[in-house]
Design a protein that fits this description.
Order of helices and strands: HHHEEHHH
Number of strands: 2
Strand order of the largest sheet: 1-2
Structural class: mainly alpha
Distance between the termini: 24 Å
Shape: rod-shaped
Length: 259
C-alpha cells in the first residue's frame, strides 16, 4: 500500500514536471518520455574564461545600460546648466542722419540658478548611484559564478567517488552476502539490507548527476552562454577531469545492464 501511494505521488510530480517543461517551449505536453543521459557530464571552462563571459551576461548588460542612460542624462543636464550666450552683429543705416552705424548684440537666456543647480546635483547623484549599482552587481555575479563553479567541481568529485569506491564496495558486499545467505551464514534481513545499500548508492549517483546538470544550467543562465557542447567536450581540457565523462558513461551503462 505504501508503495502504491508513493507511485501515485511520483506520477503526479512527473505530470507537473512534464507540463512545466512544455510551458518553456510554449507548447502542450504531448510527449510521454524524454531521452537523455545524466552520466554525460560536460567538462567546464576555467574560471578566467567564465569571468570574460560574465562581462557580456544579460544581467550585467542591463545594469550597464542603466548606467549609460544616467550618464547621458547627466551630460544633458550639465549642458543645460551652461548659459547659451549668443553674439550678433549688423549694420544699420540712419536715413535722417545719412550715416551708417555698426550694431553689436549679446543675448543670454534667463535661468533659475537654484533650480538648475538642484537638477544638476540630482543627475550627478543618479549617475553615481547607477555606477555603484553596476559595480555591486558585477561583484555579486562574480561571487555567484565562483560559488557555482566550486559546487560543480565538488559534485563531480562526489560522482567520481561514488562510481569508483562506493558502488564497487556495495556490489562486493551484496555478492558476499548472497554467498553467505546461500551457505546459511546470513539471513534474509542481511540480504535485503545489502540490496538496499546498493540501490541507495545507485540512487545517490543519479541525484548527484542531476544536481550537476541543474547547477550547470544555473551557470549557463548566469553567463548567458551555453557551456556544454555536443558530448563531453571541454572548452579548455583539464588533466584532472579529462577522463570523468567516459568513466561516468561506462559506469552508467554497466548499471543499466545489471538492472
Amino acid at each position: 500500500m505504501q508503495t502504491s501511494l508513493d507511485s501515485a505521488r511520483l506520477q503526479g510530480e512527473l505530470e507537473l514536471a512534464r507540463r512545466q517543461l512544455a510551458m518553456l517551449w510554449n507548447a502542450e505536453p504531448d510527449f510521454d518520455r524524454l531521452s537523455g543521459d545524466l552520466s554525460q557530464l560536460p567538462l567546464l571552462p576555467d574560471e578566467a574564461q567564465l569571468q570574460q563571459r560574465l562581462l557580456q551576461s544579460p544581467q550585467l548588460a542591463l545594469y550597464l545600460s542603466q548606467q549609460r542612460l544616467a550618464e547621458s542624462l547627466l551630460q544633458l543636464q550639465a549642458a543645460s546648466a551652461v548659459a547659451d550666450l549668443r553674439w550678433s552683429a549688423g549694420v544699420r543705416y540712419n536715413n535722417e542722419a545719412n550715416s551708417p552705424s555698426v550694431l553689436l548684440g549679446l543675448s543670454m537666456p534667463l535661468q533659475n540658478q537654484a533650480r538648475t543647480t538642484a537638477q544638476l546635483d540630482a543627475a550627478t547623484a543618479a549617475a553615481g548611484q547607477a555606477a555603484l549599482a553596476t559595480e555591486q552587481q558585477q561583484r555579486q555575479l562574480q561571487l555567484s559564478l565562483l560559488g557555482l563553479l566550486r559546487q560543480l567541481h565538488s559534485i563531480r568529485a562526489e560522482i567520481r567517488a561514488t562510481e569508483t569506491r562506493i558502488l564497487p564496495s556495495a556490489r562486493a558486499v551484496l555478492k558476499a552476502t548472497q554467498q553467505g545467505y546461500q551457505s546459511g551464514a546470513y539471513d534474509m534481513t542481511d540480504l535485503l539490507a545489502a540490496q538496499q545499500e546498493l540501490l541507495d548508492s545507485q540512487f545517490s549517483l543519479l541525484q548527484l548527476q542531476q544536481r550537476f546538470h541543474l547547477q550547470l544550467t544555473q551557470l549557463q543562465r548566469l553567463t548567458g552562454f551555453g557551456l556544454a557542447q555536443s558530448g563531453p567536450v571541454a572548452f579548455s581540457p583539464s588533466p584532472d577531469v579529462s577522463l570523468l565523462a567516459p568513466v561516468a558513461s561506462a559506469r552508467a551503462k554497466e548499471l543499466f545492464d545489471e538492472n
